[in-house]
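Sample intake sheet
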Amino acid sequence: MADGAAPAATIRLPGPLRDRAGRRTEVATRGTTVRALIVDLDQQFPGMRFELCEETGNLRPFINIFLGNENVRDLQGLDTPVSDGGIVHILLSVAGG
């Protein structure tokens, strides 16, 4: 990137997180890693990081984040690098009986 800005990525939000983001289904963010995107998301919508991460900074067990078609848990976790134009999907695990 010529201007030196962090890569731009789009985060697609699941229904339960949309209220916190003003009913948006997707949000434009910037960051070099998934973790940095979450920080940017939290700056735009305070409290969003708490929804996604434990106090330790680790991803909550029922949250799955995909960069493209790859689960970041199978890559480098929250330290997975993000390229300009990346698409990140946040999914919530469903449980019940």
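Comment: The chain has a mean pLDDT of 92. Strands lie at 8-12, 26-30, 63-67, 70-71, 86-92.
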